[in-house]
Specification:
Chains A, B: This is TetR/AcrR family transcriptional regulator. Chains A, B: Keywords: DNA-binding, Transcription, Transcription regulation. The structure is a homodimer of 199-residue chains. Chain A has 2 domains: 53 residues, Arc Repressor Mutant, subunit A (Orthogonal Bundle); 129 residues, Tetracycline Repressor, domain 2 (Orthogonal Bundle). In chain A, 74% of the residues lie in helices and 0% in strands. In chain A, helix 6 runs parallel beside helix 9 and helix 8 packs across helix 9. Chains A and B meet through helix 7, helix 8, helix 9 and helix 10 of A and helix 7, helix 8, helix 9 and helix 10 of B. Chain A binds a DNA duplex (30 and 30 nucleotides) through helix 1 and helix 3.
DNA sequence: AAACATACTTACTTATTAGTAAGTAAGCAA
DNA sequence: TTGCTTACTTACTAATAAGTAAGTATGTTT
């Protein structure tokens, strides 16, 4: 067959990655262990090591998968064909979804606090991931301002960095103060970016 | 004497608290240990337990001290007598200072990611601390908009939450992407809040 | 059927964690 | 000088961590 691995292997590998990601976003990198994953999966911790020999590799795999997801999502016709305000809303929906589930924080918000304790490989992957997301949003914002569908001052890149920073922080706020606070912040963000219609 | 404890006791207790705070802001709550503090202080880990029996108490003491600092700072005549834009700048200076040293993140940014793993006492203290800071800033923003020295849309409380969220996030960004990115975000924030002079 | 790879388990090591209990040196108080 | 408090150290426990080595059952390939 042309598949890289047998079906069972693929399943377990994926389930490990999925669980590890959930645990990472819920507890941070230093507060989840192979035991947590193993127990939830009904296997022994050594089985996790078989698929991901070190925690560093597991962590890097989580970032890489999010990176692949971002690229895939960003390049979807369903997304590329949207207007800039619609693309912004599509991005906000990702965060709204996280806020409603847990609340989960985003990958950046989960790893940035522990950043200095992360293996160098993970630090670099997080930089790349975050940089690419910011670059994409900067493009959306620039296009939106050019066609008059979005408003803001300053450079698109600065504004994109500010917006993403606020979004990452807003999920942390949701965790501490509840989902309502999160929506206040998002409404504030959205209102400021969308031009007021003078009807 | 009227002092609560002998000079030596006070010194060590304070030095522990200071070091613990540094380690907390640098590594997160789950990635620093009594050993780290003890080694840096030149004592045995058990000595730390003598002053702060449990990590939960040590963590709570850190938040409580920041809470006291906030109240003291906020009520300083030097601060209360400033105009709203000056008060905002005074707040931003606190974050600028952190960004230039380390960069350190803020207490909220350090604890929010690990929030679900924190002892209940610390969760509650962080909520109180963060809530009080937001309340203060909301007052500053409301006063500033009332006298025309600050501009923003929406409720002062929502805007305050958004600003503080962005500030917390911006220090995490500084850690990942460098101090320059932090200043981009802060300039963006400041520019939007200060009315453009029509000279 | 023999050989091999996959996906594990069992059993282990080494390191680190928070926390405790008992002992001790130094200083102050009665 | 006797006793008490402060501020520790020494020596420990129990739990948990990441990671490894060797064994094993279940296939698949040849």
């Amino acid at each position: 067959m042309s598949t890289a691995a047998p079906a069972t292997a693929f399943d377990t590998r994926t389930r490990i990655l999925h669980l590890a990601e959930e645990l990472l976003l819920a507890r941070g990198f230093n507060a989840f262990s192979y035991q947590h994953i193993a127990k939830e999966l009904g296997v022994k911790p050594a089985a996790i090591h078989y698929h991901y020999p070190s925690k560093e590799e597991l962590g890097a795999a989580i970032i890489q998968r999010q990176q692949r997801r971002l690229r895939k999502w960003r390049d979807l016709p369903r997304v590329t064909e949207l207007t800039p305000p619609q693309q912004l809303d599509a991005l906000l929906d990702v965060y709204r979804h996280r806020a409603a589930h847990g609340p989960q924080v985003c990958l950046f918000g989960a790893l940035a606090a522990d950043f200095l304790t992360l293996p160098a490989v993970m630090q670099q992957e997080l930089r790349t991931f975050s940089g690419e997301l910011t670059h994409w949003l900067a493009g959306v914002l620039a296009a939106g301002r050019a066609d008059g569908s979005l408003q803001f001052s300053g450079h698109p890149f600065s504004k994109a960095a500010q917006v993403l920073t606020t979004l990452a922080g807003s999920l942390q706020v949701a965790r501490v103060h509840g989902e309502e606070q999160f929506h206040y912040i998002l409404r504030q963000l959205r209102t400021e970016l969308l031009p007021t219609r003078e009807a």
